[in-house]
């Protein structure tokens, strides 16, 4: 099984850490390739920035299928480009937010989401609502650090995340969803990755990188059995409606 994990940033500075974490979590028969975009911002807290990276992200998903990958993960809790890319590929393609919060709802009565910045916290709450789990979520908070600050001060990221875990517990959460892939990676690297990492002060801690990978592995297995994405409505393929229109649009915007 070969899975592409796309960091949707215009930098490779996070790749090695994500690769190390995923290599510890993957199945023995899984090969994970971590990559980043050719250009773009180093963070996506602002919707304006996210708008510029979605096009290349979708194309990387399409190319991954052509290159023989079995599954693709877009590694950001904003789930950028996931719906659009799903329309265009038959292999499993997921973000990290949707699978992580659905697992959180299965592992506890209530969960909380904690992202890196106050700017992103409302977006996380909106996605929880979008995915239909608002009633299970007790709040959306942050560790109040930019990705640049996390990269420069991982120990502070660890301390702020531990404080956030206590915040989740005080609000009645059973599970904390780390709502930033980079924040969580640096937290686990500083805290130490072991079985104890996922149960802290009585709360279950969910890392979206690992949950995204494990869910993708399951979806690849199911896909091979014939259980796949429904094309009945939401994820209907534009190629099936009109292949000529699909090529015309792609040529108009210079992607083929």
UniProtKB/TrEMBL annotation:
It comes from the Bacteria. Signal peptide: none annotated. GO terms for molecular function: amino-acid racemase activity. Belongs to the HyuE racemase family. InterPro entries: Asp/Glu/hydantoin_racemase (IPR015942), Hydantoin_racemase-like (IPR052186), Iso_Racemase_Enz_sf (IPR053714). It holds the Pfam family Asp_Glu_race. This is Allantoin racemase.
């Amino acid at each position: 099984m070969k899975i592409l994990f796309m960091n949707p940033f215009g930098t490779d500075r996070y790749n090695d850490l994500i690769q190390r974490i995923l290599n510890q979590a993957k199945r023995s028969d899984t090969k994970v390739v971590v990559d980043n975009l050719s250009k773009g911002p180093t963070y996506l807290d602002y919707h304006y920035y996210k708008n510029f990276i979605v096009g290349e992200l979708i194309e990387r998903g399409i190319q991954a299928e052509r290159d023989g990958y079995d599954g693709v993960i877009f590694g950001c809790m904003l789930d950028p480009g996931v719906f659009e890319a799903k329309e265009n590929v038959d292999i499993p393609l997921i973000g990290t937010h949707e699978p992580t919060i659905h697992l959180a709802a299965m592992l506890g009565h209530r969960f909380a989401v904690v992202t890196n910045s106050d700017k992103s916290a409302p977006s996380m709450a909106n996605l929880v609502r979008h995915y239909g789990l608002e009633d299970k979520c007790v709040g959306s908070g942050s560790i109040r650090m930019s990705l640049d600050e996390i990269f420069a001060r991982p120990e502070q990221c660890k301390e702020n995340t531990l404080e956030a875990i206590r915040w989740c517990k005080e609000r009645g959460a059973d599970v904390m969803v780390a709502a930033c892939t980079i924040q969580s990676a640096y937290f686990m690297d500083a805290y130490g990755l072991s079985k104890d990492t996922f149960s802290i002060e009585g709360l279950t801690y969910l890392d979206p990188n690992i949950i995204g990978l494990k869910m993708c592995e399951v979806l690849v297995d199911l896909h091979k059995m014939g259980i796949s994405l429904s094309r009945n409505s939401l994820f209907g393929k534009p190629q099936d409606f009109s292949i000529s229109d699909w090529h015309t649009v792609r040529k108009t915007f210079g992607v083929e």
